[in-house]
Write a structure and sequence with these properties.
The complex is a heterotrimer of chains A (about 240), B (about 375) and C (about 625).
Chain A: H1 22-47, H2 58-61, H3 64-89, H4 93-122, E1 126-129, H5 138-147, E2 154-157, H6 167-196, H7 209-237
Antiparallel strand pairs in A: 1-2
Chain B: H1 2-30, H2 47-80, H3 97-126, E1 136-143, E2 146-152, E3 159-164, E4 166-170, E5 175-181, E6 186-190, E7 194-199, E8 205-209, E9 215-220, E10 233-239, H4 241-252, H5 261-272, E11 284-286, E12 305-306, E13 311-312, H6 322-334, H7 336-339, H8 344-348, H9 350-353, H10 361-372
Parallel strand pairs in B: 1-5, 4-10
Antiparallel strand pairs in B: 1-2, 2-3, 3-11, 5-8, 6-7, 9-10, 12-13
Helix pairs in contact in B: 2-3, 5-10, 6-10
Chain C: H1 16-21, H2 26-54, H3 65-100, H4 108-127, H5 154-182, H6 195-227, H7 240-274, H8 281-294, H9 310-322, H10 324-338, H11 347-370, H12 372-378, H13 383-406, H14 408-412, E1 414-415, H15 418-444, H16 461-491, E2 493-494, H17 529-535, H18 563-579, H19 588-606
Antiparallel strand pairs in C: 1-2
Classes of the chains: A mainly alpha (about 240), B alpha+beta (about 375), C mainly alpha (about 625).
């Protein structure tokens, strides 16, 4: 009997020692490695949390409701991915395509939110009424102290938050940027599979491994975001969290 | 069994041979220690280095015994069990749990015993003992590739006294040293007084040591810090307390002015050639102020070395030698790059970068005279 | 199956150079890895020789300070990433599938990709000598690597080539993990795996988990250098110590990535030439796993002088000392293996015995470092190079030499000269002790490491002179090794299938093995199955010589492919494009490289493992 290489095998029964597919195992090993990748980035973020010498700080720029919405969209995309896979195994190719498109769109929406977020952080500006400043964050207080000392009506800053601005900017953009890059790669992958599904026999209820792997990756990227959202956003804005 | 008894008899002879051999080997090993060398770690002259050496003796002797026993077992096995008959097949033993447990437990116990003095010394290194004597602190700041030292000014708590590359300490006092760096990571190391501690930019470090007897102790940067890492040295000069106080007083004042006209002209060149941009000639600065780019030269002629321990200006007995100093100064000023590759002065000072502003022979002579007057 | 619409014909049974370029045969890739890494080892050796000549006496001026600093940086990086790791990878490639009874690795094309990517990264690093190589040390401590301190491209080449090498190592490790878990012959349970395969498996897991950490550290450094981020910028609050943590969280597992395969090789060679099974197989496996696990808890022992505080140093003292226990177990078990055996002193056996003797010394000086109170005296002196050379030369390189000779009949199909092998062993044994032992002395005598010169009167002249002399003994030894291998590979006596009366499956097939390895996938019934088979009297017929293809056997192997190499070339171009990002069009070259890489990946993933026309009997 010919030695079969599992790369060709897409069925349920694999001719491997463990019965698990080679590629699936490779995917798990890769995800383990990727965990360490994000682990190191998150560790860097945490080490530098609160160590920035100048603002803006997380409390100045984060808009938790907006990010919650994009987080929700990304979580829903995971569900949509599950439905796509389920549709495929039930031989519902049309349903599979619809759910794949919806997953990709939700992923793209998340990226859209991220682009918006990055640009609004980069152009973050502060305008403080010197006569009635209200409640100020440390960063705003700093602008107030600098700008309102000579009796001006307004104190302004258009510095914004760029990666070069402070440690928060450096670590925030790097961590979330790499997550965004993972999501983007995932979208390209999903769309490739979608195109492939129009070619006869490439993706079938039996040959679902390609979709299975993409789904695994997609769920992983989602889980990473939950960690990032908690550690970066929630911890950043609610110190007692 | 006959052969078994013979084997036992052979085994009895082994310990003696191993013992004698290992004594010889250890003696050979000891020849590698040179207490008389300038940076030997086997010649502690202060309590910190002495404590550190003590734990090292523990591990050296312990390690040596382990080494001899294991290598002896290995060599014994190699000779004993070499092939006698190609077709022989030895007993296929797969292991022995009792043995394996024993040789797991013994090293573990030995190591745990070793941890005790190690950790004790570790904590000892981190906190200077509290004494009733007045406290001595100083600050050491790493630069590429020289050391800046600052003492609190005894007459004004807001001020500090700055010097470079030669640091005086009073004998018999624990000296607390705060370590800093202005550029990259350096490491502060005086082997005869204490092990090293890194000078990490913006993250201050602390160490302490004490000299038991007067003397000049060699120090060297131990963390790779760029091109001239090899050329970053300093000296710790331990002197009796009264001498130390006198030295500190002398340091806090500018050098005595000389009436030599060459010196006066040299002082002019020192200003006009831009030396003052990086080198200070007064020693009192505000506490915590940022230091100059180059070493403080207020008393450069009182130091026994030039260019961070690279050139010796002193006789064998340690007394200053003016002729040597002038010769060294001339070599240094003529082409610092030749002496210390990559140094900031030859890269940044106009007299070296701009051919039009190159120092003339005459100017160099004047500078040498001026600098050698700064006692 | 439809193919990707790029109409380059698939290579079909290419011969000659093309056969090697498009090969996805694990044995050929193993040989490519081995030869490339050995050349890199020689280049690192030349760098070391220059350094030793410079230090032969006080105030010599053979090389300048700047060149010397590049030499030790490149020497360290080369030996670790371009020599020892890929030499281990050469054995992984060649040996693992044979030991587990497989016809290839799980992902043959990914394997080819790993090699070509490694080659690209290696060339990139070595070519950086043109125009100034990195001089910040192989550990690249911040802020020496900052643009302010190091504006040249040397550091950029170092960063980017390490990233490329990381891709190669990760791809290879994924491949071996899957291969070892999933491609074992029937009956080959995990606890019947040959020790070398076991240690390789642990190494691959370590690598998969450790490499991302250095990847992140290097990315952070890249962003600092290219886009003025603040990761290691002290002026904006960055911490240079963070780099050290990230580096050593990778760096210490890396030490075990270097030494575990070596331990695996020794654990293969000793039983074969003592004619006894490995003493305490399970313990040795477990000790390896414990070393790998504890390897994550000791990284700060590289940072005892950084000022982490007495408590942190005490904790890392404890963990570091404890990691000596499983290492000790291995040494004792090896001695237990030869104890009561019938030892044949072949060249590989000599190297393995030499490994134990030398590695023990390195282990003991390692415990001396762990005595953190005195480590303050040892740190950054020549005592440390003495230690690491006893571990990495006396350890890893000796074991690799053992492996080179042990498997020589298998990969070359020829026998080497035993006499020459033994002479070279004794020369290398002598040479390394003459070179590296005096470093203990000068280290404790206060000589810092990484200094390009020292003045007269420090008392370091004599032993430095001796150490330099030792290098020349080593050089003669290695010339003999190269001659022995090179000459006999071409003209040696043909090797029988099982010249050593060995114990593992790779010796049950012809030397060199046919492309398909096993005509029939073996069924494994015990540890050291091949030995058991022979002892059971069931002598199997071994085909006299290796076949050259799948003709007549009905065994279908995956076909050669261009795409792994194309992808690797794309990555190589992209890497250069990152370093020279302002050439012609900003980031243009990098983009071209990425496009080539993507085309490669796409073509690769749409290329069936076997073309349908070729696969008619399937």
């Amino acid at each position: 009997m010919a030695q079969e290489h599992a790369a060709q095998i897409h069925g349920e029964h694999e001719d491997t020692t463990t019965g698990l597919n080679h590629r699936k195992m490779l995917m798990w090993a890769f995800l383990g490695s990727d965990c360490m990748f994000f682990g190191a980035l998150i560790a860097t973020y945490l080490v530098y949390q609160g160590k920035s010498l100048a603002g803006p700080m997380p409390v100045d720029v984060f808009d938790i409701p907006v990010t919650s919405v994009s987080t929700f969209v990304l979580l829903m995309s995971s569900m949509s991915m599950v439905l796509a896979y389920a549709a495929l195994t039930k031989n519902n190719l049309k349903g599979f395509r619809i759910w794949m498109i919806s997953t990709a769109i939700m992923g793209a929406t998340f990226i859209g939110f991220q682009v918006y977020e990055f640009s609004s952080f980069a152009h973050h500006h502060v305008d403080i009424n010197c006569s009635s400043p209200g409640e100020l964050t440390d960063y705003e207080q700093h602008i107030f102290d600098e700008g309102c000392s000579n009796g001006e009506a307004h104190a302004e800053s258009h510095e914004g938050l760029k990666p070069q601005t402070n440690l928060f900017g450096t670590t925030f953009y790097t961590l979330t940027g790499f997550h965004g890059a993972h999501v983007t790669l995932g979208i390209v992958w999903l769309l490739s599979l979608l195109l492939l599904s129009f070619k006869k026999g490439m993706i079938t209820p039996e040959k679902n491994l390609d979709v299975d792997l993409a789904a695994l990756y997609w769920h992983f990227v989602d889980v990473v975001w939950i960690v990032i959202f908690t550690v970066v956003y929630l911890f950043g804005v609610f110190p007692g969290f | 069994m006959d052969s078994g008894e013979r084997k036992l008899m052979q085994l009895n002879k082994i310990p003696k041979t191993v013992f004698l051999l290992s004594i010889a080997l250890f003696a050979l090993l000891i020849t590698g220690c040179y207490p008389d060398h300038n940076q030997s770690t086997f010649d502690p002259r202060g309590p910190v280095a002495a404590e550190q050496l003590e734990v090292f003796w523990w591990i050296l002797i312990g390690g040596f015994i382990v080494f001899v026993l294991v290598e002896a077992a290995l060599i014994y096995a190699i000779f004993k069990f070499r092939v006698k008959n190609e077709s022989d097949i030895p007993v296929q033993t797969h292991g022995n749990h009792t043995l394996e447990i024993i040789w797991t437990a013994i090293p573990a116990v030995l190591l745990i015993i070793l941890m005790v003095p190690t950790i004790q010394t570790l904590f000892y290194m981190y906190e200077a003992p509290k004494t009733t004597k007045p406290e001595h602190t100083l600050e050491a700041i790493g630069h590429q590739w020289w050391f800046e030292f600052r003492y609190p000014d005894p007459s004004n708590p807001e001020k500090e006294i700055v010097t470079a590359n030669e640091v005086y300490i009073p004998v018999g006092y624990p000296v607390a040293i705060n370590l800093e760096s202005v550029d990259v990571i350096h490491s502060f190391w005086v082997p005869k007084l204490a092990g090293k501690t890194d000078m990490v930019p913006s993250e201050g470090n602390f160490m302490w040591f004490e000299a038991d007897e007067p003397g000049e102790y060699y120090g060297q940067c131990a963390e790779y810090c760029g091109t001239s890492h090899a050329n970053m040295k300093f000296k710790v000069v331990a002197v009796p307390e009264n001498e130390f106080n006198a030295w500190l007083l002398a340091q806090s004042n500018p050098a005595m002015e000389s009436s030599d006209p060459l010196v006066k002209e040299g002082a002019g060149v020192f200003k006009s050639a831009g030396c003052t941009g990086c080198h200070a000639t007064k020693t009192i600065v505000n506490k915590g102020s940022k230091g100059r780019v180059g070493p403080n030269l207020a008393h450069v002629a009182s130091r026994r070395d030039l260019a961070a321990g690279m050139m010796r200006n002193a006789n064998e007995n340690g007394s200053l030698n003016d002729a040597l100093l002038q010769e060294n100064l001339r070599i240094w000023i003529e082409d610092p790059e030749q002496v210390k590759p990559g140094n900031l002065m030859s890269k940044g000072a106009q007299v070296y970068t701009d051919p039009d502003k190159k120092l003339t022979e005459e100017q160099i002579s004047q500078l040498v005279h001026y600098l050698s007057s700064l006692k | 199956m439809s193919t990707f619409p790029i109409s380059i014909p698939r290579p079909v049974h290419p011969t000659g150079v093309w056969g090697w370029i498009t090969t996805i045969d694990h044995k050929r890739i193993g040989i490519l890895y081995g030869i490339t890494a050995f050349i890199m080892f020689i280049s690192g050796g030349i760098e070391a020789t220059l350094m030793r000549i410079q230090l032969a006496g006080p105030e010599l001026d053979i090389v300048s300070a700047a060149v010397y600093n590049q030499l030790f940086t490149m020497h360290g990086t080369t030996m670790i990433f371009l020599a020892i790791m890929p030499l281990s990878a050469a054995f992984f490639n060649f040996v693992i599938p044979l030991q587990i009874g497989a016809r290839d690795v799980a992902f043959p094309r990914l394997n080819a990709f790993s090699y070509w990517t490694f080659l690209g990264g290696a060339l990139m690093l070595k070519l950086s000598w043109i125009g100034g190589a990195t001089d910040a040390g192989w550990f690249g401590y911040a802020p020496l690597t900052s643009v302010a301190q190091n504006p040249g491209t040397g550091i950029d080449f170092w960063i980017i080539s390490l990233q490329v090498l990381g891709v190669a190592s990760l791809a290879a490790s994924f491949n071996f993990i899957v291969t070892i878990i999933n491609m074992r012959a029937p009956g080959m349970t995990m606890m019947r795996l040959p020790l070398f395969t076991w240690m390789s498996f642990i190494t691959a897991i370590l690598l998969v988990l450790a490499f991302p950490v250095i990847t992140v550290a290097l990315i952070e450094l890249t962003f600092d250098r290219y886009f003025m981020f603040n990761f290691f910028n002290v002026a904006n609050g960055g911490s240079v110590v963070l780099w050290q943590h990230l580096f050593w969280v990778f760096g210490h597992p890396e030490v075990y990535i270097l030494i575990l395969p070596a331990m695996g090789i020794v654990s293969e060679v000793l039983p074969v030439f003592a004619k006894k099974p490995l003493f305490g197989y399970k313990t040795v496996v477990l000790a390896g796993a414990i070393i790998a696990f504890m390897g994550w808890m000791v990284w700060s022992h590289h940072m005892f002088t950084v000022g982490l505080g007495a408590v942190a140093n005490a904790v890392f003292t404890v963990t570091t000392m404890l990691i000596a226990v499983p290492t000790g177990i291995k040494v004792f078990n090896w001695i237990g293996t030869i104890w009561g055996g019938s030892i044949r002193f072949t060249t590989p056996m000599l190297y393995s015995l030499g490994f134990i003797a030398m590695f023990l010394l390195g282990g003991i000086s390692g415990v001396m470092h762990a005595v953190s109170a005195h480590d303050a005296q040892q740190q950054d002196t020549y005592f440390v190079p003495a230690h690491i050379h006893y571990v990495l030369f006396g350890g890893a390189i000796m074991a690799i030499l053992s492996g080179i000779f042990y498997w020589f009949p298998k990969y070359s199909g020829k026998m080497y000269s035993e006499k020459q092998g033994k002479i070279s062993f004794w020369l290398i044994m002598l040479g390394q002790n003459v070179t590296f032992f005096p470093m203990h002395f000068v280290g404790l005598d206060g000589m810092p490491r990484r200094i390009y010169t020292y003045v007269e009167g420090m008392g370091w002249e004599f032993w430095n002179g001796v150490a330099t002399g030792g290098v020349f003994i080593l050089i003669i030894g290695f010339l003999l090794v190269i001659d022995n291998i090179g000459r006999n590979w071409r003209n040696g006596k043909p090797a029988p299938a099982d010249p050593w009366d060995a114990r593992t499956l790779e010796w049950s097939i012809a030397s060199p093995p046919p492309e398909y390895n096993f005509e029939e996938i073996p069924v494994v019934r015990s540890l050291d199955d091949w030995w058991a088979t022979k002892q059971g009297g069931a002598h199997k017929e071994i085909p006299a010589s290796g076949g050259s293809g799948d003709e007549g056997h009905g065994i279908h192997l995956p076909q050669p492919s261009y795409w792994p190499m194309v992808t690797a070339i794309g990555l190589f171009i992209a890497a250069y494009g990152v370093v020279f990002n302002d050439l012609i069009v900003p980031w243009g070259i990098a983009a071209i490289g990425l496009v080539i890489g993507f085309v490669g990946v796409y073509a690769w993933s749409f290329e069936p493992v076997n073309d349908p026309e070729e696969d008619s009997t399937h």
